[in-house]
Structure prediction request, 376 residues.
Amino acid sequence: MYRDKEWDLKGGSTARAAIKKVDLDPEAVLVVRNGQLVTDDTILAEEDEVKLIAVISGGLGGYCKGGG
Amino acid sequence: MIWALKCRRCGEPAAVNMRQHRFALCGEHFLDWFISQTERVIEKYRMFAPQDRLLVAVSGGKDSLALWDVLLRLGYEVEALYIDLGIGDEAYSRQSRKHVEQFAAAAGDTPYRVLDVKATYGKSVPELAHEKRGRKVCSLCGLVKRHVMNRLAYEGEYVAVATGHNLDDEAAVLFQNALHWQTGYLARQAPVLPSTHPRLARKVKPFFRFYERDTAAYALLRGIDYIYEECPYSKGATTIFYKELLNQLEARSRGAKQQFYLSFLQARDEQGLFGQDPQELELGECENCGQPTTASGLCAFCRLWEGR
Prediction:
């Protein structure tokens, strides 16, 4: 699961491989497996629920900090 | 066979892998490490002293709320400032503000203040951009925020304004400035921007050595409820593209982003690249608001509202 997208993937591969498989950048997401933050070398099982959290933010080189 | 990474401190399964530092930590030890690293950076770069009063600029996003959290945990006397810019027909700003309010309440009603741009000056930033055709929202937004932060820091007699800029932010700006050889900007980009005028606030970036994924990990592990949606004006922003490019580089060569930015600081400061010292910028005072400006007469902020 990533933002409003969802995929069903086979288990047995690492989170990093799964992220690449769905065309996302492993450097730009964090992996939350069954509610727990894990490193992307974690091997995923078929029944795992995985949420990918986008980490890139801000326009203007992040100089949009400090207001909203 | 791929072995799951273990925490360098306790051997439990790791939650955060920092390839640039070549070690991984479990959630608990990452939180400790993150706080102690922030403290080290504050001391090493002489950002501020334990007794100083600080203003932390917050947006409701992961970086600024994490910074507010860490500064409070380190025991600093800190007050937050949320600038309500009226973005997304005001809905985005309302939502961001809610995250700030919730954070403050959860932190034991820690003090913060809100400056509503429309209520204070008569127009929201998008309305102002609409009026000033040809001016981009992001550039006006930056101008308004710099003015407001500086004014409130001066009036409130804070020693410094702290912002949540992380290493990815700084590296993306450096990349942009280097692509265009903006030597003036390259001369000034720094984790500490000194006060070079009695009315110019000192600005500090205590998170400037953390990768963006590490500040996000801190916010997640700490359970900070930050605004996940992006500002509607940042969609397709060039600097997000630069961040993506730098991440591609990072994937090929771990630590590349860190090396790019930290080596730049070292080369500039030790070898005097780009010449101009920020101290040399001549600042006068705006004849309307009194804030420091390089322009003669009105500052850029006051010129925005002129003749209205």
